[in-house]
Amino acid sequence: MECRQITPQIIAEYMFHHPNLKLLNNTGCIVPTGLNAALRYDCGDIIVRVDGHTCIEPDYVSQCVHALRESGAENVGGKMTAIGEGLLGQAVAVATSTSFGSVEPDSIILTKKNG
Q1: CA 109 centroid distance within chain
Q2: Rounded CA gap, 35 and 41, in Å?
Q3: How far is CA 98 from CA 80, 93, 95, in A?
Q4: How far apart are CA 54 and CA 42, in angstroms?
Q5: Pairwise CA distance, residues 51 & 72, whole Å
Q6: What digits encode the pLDDT tens for the residues 65-108?
Q7: What is the pLDDT of residue 65?
Q8: Which pTM does this prediction carry?
Q9: Where are the domains of the chain?
Q10: Rounded to whole angstroms, how far apart are CA atoms 97 and 81?
């Protein structure tokens, strides 16, 4: 199965200016298989996940890294605003951008190990 989307073209443009970026092939064409591929590739202490069709604030990553280091948490994250195309895409974007489908604006989520 081949994923047909424009995301690889956009990432290739970013990679030209940021050679530290790596585009991995998501052979399953669904989020879990892509995320698992990324986690297998893992080459750093911190993994930043920003899904396609998502806009983040300019300081989102720096705030998450700061929260991660200061809290000792295993996982941090916060509000990301989804943008959808078409009726279904817009519906999903609205659902995942509300407090019902996500977290409150300006909040950072911390997940610590048990024990």
Answers
A1: 14
A2: 10
A3: 10, 9, 6
A4: 21
A5: 24
A6: 999 999 888 888 876 667 788 898 888 877 776 665 454 545 55
A7: 92
A8: 0.58
A9: 1-43, 47-115
A10: 5
